[in-house]
Amino acid sequence: MASDEIDTYLYLIDTTASLYIGADDDSPDTSRSKITFTAQRGVSYWIEATSFSGLDTGTSSVSRWCQGGWTPALTSPVEVPRPPSYSDLLDLTELLPQTLTVLRDHLGHYQSYYSN
Q: The pTM is what?
């Protein structure tokens, strides 16, 4: 992904297995992002092209390069939803304490929320 207007950011998700594969923000600088991976037949991937803040707007381009005889199909781009409004975010912050309480009760007080 490349842009002269925004700080680009790419995410890659295996939607077949619901797995986060990777992300990139600065390859080699803030105007470009790059993810290299080996695509598997029968697996659907979600590539999210956005900005570092997720709120910046501007023109960018996304391209792909495939090595070998098999080229994964690309679906048509989808419309990117509008960023949440300030009032939407305020509504979400009211749920945060309840969410953390549920996580704490489920995982225990001393267990990490992060996993590999």
A: 0.53
